[in-house]
Amino acid sequence: MNPFFMEITFNPNAFWKYLQYPFMQKALIAAILIGIICALIGTFVLLRGMVFLGEAIAHSAFAGAALAILLGLDPLLVIMLFSVISSISIGYVNEKKMMKDEIIIGVIFSFFMALAILFISLMPVYSTDVPSILFGNILIISPNTFNLLIFFSFLIIIVIFVIKKELYFMTFDEESAKVSGIPVRLLTYIFLVLVSMTISVSLKAIGAILVFAMIVTPAAAAYQLTFRFNRLLLLAGFFGVFSTVGGLYLSVAFDLPSGSTIVTLITFIFLISFIISPKRRLAHLAHLPTECPYCGEVIDEGSCEDPDCPQSDTPHSHVAHDDHRRGDVVIDKRKLPGKTPSTHEHNGP
């Protein structure tokens, strides 16, 4: 045996043997909840182009965890406080257009990482909680953390489904959402807080380094396989739960770190999705012009601007869904607040 590597053993029955114990039951429930909430939040993060926001919040959460360990406080509440502060700060600067998103995200990312290192250096004795916060260990979630995870997970799921339509509308047409009377500013901050909560409650299980992957990768894998928004949510949720539960099983069976095993599994799922993706197969046809089915106007992209089009007064998409043109997620204004039904809109979730 190579002296630089541990011998890997496979025990397929280990997971089922330990499942009779409360710690494994809690880990399984936590895995399912984390898979769901990360996928739901990650879908909107992906569609709204806020991928690197999650990375910045994750590292600010790590700073909160380091401070909680230093002061002997409950880590989850301090983690959530730091996460919310960083997300609201980024949202405020972005709203006021003070600087580009990548600049403020980079500044906050660096600042909170520096704080985390500072807090760790101030610890009189190195704590074993630091590696678990960095890399995660879903098997050692404390009862208090587990209870908070359940509470915040259900809260996140409920809020997401209450404001799902509005978030969807905002994601693709923020100006129209404002005109329709949707409180875009309020919902944006609510969404940022939801992202913070998701990262905070997942941190102990997945780790600060890997939680970012669970926010992005399940949604990215699902995005490769569907053109419909509701299907995107369902697929992302399925991939999230499958990867967390499957990763937990593999980590126990092979005696591997749970967080890294979970992220490795979802990455393989993403690669498979990318390989078989209909979007990738149709990408070479993306340059083909589309034709308005109502007026015959040939257009490369965007809205039909032909004044003689029977539906020229209604914004409509030219994304086709036959085998020769590229399809994508588009808005169905029949299902959006403040919109009247239109037969011209035929392609919503």
Fold and architecture overview:
The chain has helices at residues 14-18, 22-47, 51-71, 75-96, 101-121, 129-135, 143-162, 164-172, 174-179, 184-206, 211-223, 229-254, 258-276, 278-282; strands at residues 290-291, 298-299. It is built from 14 helices and 2 strands, in the order H-H-H-H-H-H-H-H-H-H-H-H-H-H-E-E. The relative contact order is 0.14. The termini are far apart. A hairpin with a 6-residue loop joins strand 1 (290-291) and strand 2 (298-299). With 349 residues, the protein is an all-alpha fold. It has a two-stranded antiparallel ribbon with strand order 1-2. It has 2 domains: 20-210, ABC transporter involved in vitamin B12 uptake, BtuC (Orthogonal Bundle); 285-349, no CATH class. The model is unreliable at 317-349 (pLDDT under 50). The chain is globular and about 60 Å long. Helix content is 64%, strand content 1%. Helix 3 runs antiparallel to helix 6 (129-135), helix 3 (51-71) packs across helix 10 (184-206) and helix 4 (75-96) packs antiparallel against helix 5 (101-121).
